């Protein structure tokens, strides 16, 4: 489902997502530079009770944020040249480590995403809004629950 959201509404969606996710969930974020992927992640982290500076892990591939309701494993796979390179940074270990995994630029590793995940695509609409498409891949029940967040 696609919707046009203001930045305030995008923040509200992130708050709702933080309440929705459970340990071992994966959020796959897709969108160009500046669409709000990291901002969405920061809000989710804050709502999970994670303190500290949440920034894009561009030069680290993954940053671990511990504490709060559950750990957050924040990936940025922009610099990978092959989807299978994600395994060299411990990808599988993070997926099954009782935390929330958020992957920026997830389209780069789409062939390596788990069977079930939340896909959020964010597109520039104008300076004040974004077009957002969100769905739960691989689980119809959770897809129905996710759609209620809008």
Provide a descriptive summary of the structure in words.
With about 150 residues, this protein is α/β, with parallel strands linked by helices. The protein has a single domain (about 1-145), classed as P-loop containing nucleotide triphosphate hydrolases (Rossmann fold, 3-Layer(aba) Sandwich). About 25% of the residues lie in helices and about 30% in strands. The protein has four helices and seven strands. It has helices at about 5-20, 35-45, 90-95, 140-145, and strands at about 1-5, 25-30, 60-65, 70-75, 100-105, 115-125, 130-135. It has a seven-stranded mixed beta sheet with strand order 1-7-6-2-5-4-3. Strand 3 (about 60-65) and strand 4 form a beta hairpin. The mean pLDDT is about 90.
Overall tally of structural domains: 1
- Which bin fits the share of residues in helices? 25-40%
How large, in whole angstroms, is the Cα Rg?
14 Å
Q: Which stretches of 5+ consecutive residues score pLDDT under 50? A: none
Shape: globular
Mean pLDDT: 92
Total strands: the figure is: 7
Structural class: alpha/beta
Kindly report the name of the CATH homologous superfamily.
P-loop containing nucleotide triphosphate hydrolases
Can you tell me the CATH class?
Alpha Beta
* H/E element order: EHEHEEHEEEH
Give me the number of helical elements: 4
CATH architecture: 3-Layer(aba) Sandwich
- Range of strand content: 25-35%
Give the termini separation. 9 Å
Give a nutshell description of this structure.
With 150 residues, this protein is α/β, with parallel strands linked by helices. Helices cover 25% and strands 29% of the residues. The chain has helices spanning 7-20, 37-47, 91-95, 140-147, and strands at residues 2-6, 26-31, 62-65, 72-76, 100-104, 117-126, 129-137.
């Amino acid at each position: 489902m696609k919707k046009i959201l203001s930045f305030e509404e995008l923040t509200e969606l992130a708050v709702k997502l933080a309440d929705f996710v459970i340990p071992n969930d994966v959020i796959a974020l897709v969108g160009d530079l500046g669409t709000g992927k990291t901002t969405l992640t920061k809000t989710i982290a804050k709502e999970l009770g994670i303190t500290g500076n949440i920034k894009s892990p561009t030069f680290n591939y993954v940053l671990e944020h511990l504490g709060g309701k559950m750990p957050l494993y924040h990936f940025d796979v922009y610099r990978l040249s092959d989807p299978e390179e994600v395994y060299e940074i411990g990808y599988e270990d993070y997926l099954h480590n009782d935390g929330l995994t958020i992957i920026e630029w997830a389209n780069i590793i789409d062939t390596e995403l788990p069977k079930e995940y939340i896909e959020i695509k964010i597109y520039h609409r104008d300076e004040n809004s974004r077009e957002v498409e969100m769905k739960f891949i691989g689980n119809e029940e959770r897809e129905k629950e996710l759609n209620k967040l809008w």
